Amino acid sequence: MSTSLSSSVSRPSDQAPAVLRAHAETAYAAELDALAAADDRPRPERWRLSPWAVATYLLGGTLPDGTVVTPKYVGPRRIVEVAVTTLATDRALLLLGVPGTAKTWVSEHLAAAVSGDSTLLVQGTAGTPEEAIRYGWNYARLLAEGPSREALVPSPVLRAMAEGKTARVEELTRIPADVQDTLITILSEKTLPIPELGEEVQAVRGFNLIATANDRDRGVNELSSALRRRFNTVVLPLPATLDDEVSIVARRVSELGRSLDLPEPPSALTEIQRVVTVFRELRAGVTADGRTKLKSPSGTLSTAEAISVVTNGLALAAHFGDGQLRAGDVAAGLLGAVVRDPATDRLIWQEYLESVVRERTDWKDFYRSCRDAAAL
Ligand SMILES: Nc1ncnc2c1ncn2[C@@H]1O[C@H](COP(=O)(O)OP(=O)(O)OP(=O)(O)O)[C@@H](O)[C@H]1O
Ligand SMILES: [Mg+2]
User: Fold this and answer.
1) Ligand 1 atom closest to Cα of residue 300
2) What strands, in cross-sheet order, belong to the sheet with 121-123?
3) Which of 54, 161, 349, 363 has the CB geometry, 3.0–4.6 Å to 203, for a possible disulfide?
4) Does 327 fall in a domain?
5) Can you give the pLDDT at residue 222?
6) Cα dihedral 282, 288, 290, 295 in deg (nearest 10)
7) Is there a contact between 370 and 328 (Cβ–Cβ < 8 Å)?
């Protein structure tokens, strides 16, 4: 017999395949274990950690035994406290904000810390059907045996209800309004009827739901007011200061670089500071010193995009340069992030380069690289 697919991809059992991106509960298992061991505060039923420990996991800290918990979210402590507390109540949590403000990131880490499982996820799109939130059927079994528990394919939300875990719904407002409304019964009655079986699944304690929605999508599908009332809304802001944003980018870039096996560069900080400064100035429509008004390009220029501009730059420096991140390595990425609509953004970028970047005496190399990239 020819080699089957499964045997050709099987590995020695002691060697787990290196996945491209581990789930938060796996990637940060050591921190979560240390927190659980140090945590002597009361935990809501089926929570892996107390609300205090969940907040510490997100915001970072040092435990009594010396374990350092890295900050996952950089931002106001109160926001995290309100988000965690909400999950311990009967209201669901809605994370709202402009693109790239870590809504998805925070939702994954909250689910990992609270339930030890961030995978019960529904990705919202204009085509998300009701089955993705309720349940579907294994049609072969349904036809052969008729409707039964075994033929039922539970959605991630249904599984979270049955197991008392945290469900996640990404991009809630992209889901058509009638499908969104499926959540109303789940969130208010904490039950999901299965008329085909004459049964219902009642949520057990520990179940809650985190939804994310993008500010810019507003108007795509408004949340109905009935559904909105089931949520506590927490708005995630853009990083307040340049230093905050630089530290977010630096931390994520070095984590991503390690997962891509890129060598740690001697110092990427200068370029990170410049990229973040450019992003913040263009976003705000005014230079950091408040003196020059600027036009803002059409792109969002989020922190997430700054992270990807710098990560791409590091890969360029590692593979085609001497490993040191230089202006030339980030210039092309920066151009791509700023110029989304060639008709208007190119002009805005050129104006910014000539009137602001050019005047900065310690930015000469940066100015030259950006000008060269724009001329290509
Ligand atoms: N305040 C912050 N603290 C820590 N990381 C942040 C912060 N803001 C952004 N990031 C980083 O930005 C990246 C992207 O965030 P994420 O994808 O969660 O954004 P989002 O708000 O879900 O965006 P979108 O609306 O496009 O879905 C993450 O890698 C995250 O680490
Ligand atoms: Mg997101």
Assistant:
1) 26
2) 121-123, 166-170, 208-214, 92-97, 231-235
3) 161
4) yes
5) 78
6) -10
7) no
> What is the CA 129 to chain-centroid distance, rounded?
23
Domain boundary among 214, 235, 256: 235
* pLDDT one-digit tens code per residue, 247-304: 999 999 988 888 777 777 667 899 999 999 999 999 999 999 999 999 999 888 999 9
Q: How far is the CA of 190 from the centre of ligand 1 (A)?
A: 30
Report yes or no on 4 lying in a domain.
Answer: no
Q: What is the 3-state secondary structure (H, E, C) of 130-182?
A: HHHCCEEECHHHHHHHCCCHHHEEECHHHHHHHHCCEEEEECHHHCCHHHHCH
Nearest ligand 1 atom to the CA of 95 is 21
pTM for this model (two decimals): 0.90
Pocket flag, ligand 1, residue 186 (CB < 6 Å): no
pLDDT, one tens digit per residue, over 298-336 is: 888 999 999 999 999 999 988 998 888 999 999 989 999
Q: What number does the ligand 1 atom closest to the CA of 170 have? A: 27
The better pLDDT of the pair 256, 63 is held by 63
Residues 173 and 271 in one domain: no
Instruction: Tell me the CA distances in angstroms from 64 to 36, 37, 39, 67, one per residue in order.
Output: 12, 11, 10, 7
Residue 24 near ligand 1, beta carbon < 6 Å? no
CA of 102 to the centre of ligand 1 (A): 3
Find the mean pLDDT for residues 211-234.
82
pLDDT value for 221? 64
What residue numbers bound the domain in which 186 lies?
20-235
- Give me the number of domains the chain comprises: 2
Tokens 């402009």 correspond to 98
Q: Is 113 exposed, middle or buried (0-12, 13-18, 19+ CB in 10 A)?
A: buried
**CA-proximal residue: ligand 1, atom 23 (nearest):** 100
pLDDT at 45 over 70: yes
Residue whose CB lies within 8 A of the most ligand 1 atoms, among 21, 77, 101, for a mutation test:
101
The answer to whether residues 190 and 100 belong to one domain is: yes
Domain shared by 118 and 193, yes or no: yes
Q: What is the pLDDT of residues 67-108, one digit of tens each?
A: 999 999 999 999 999 999 999 999 999 999 989 999 999 999
Residues 349 and 316 both lie in one domain: yes
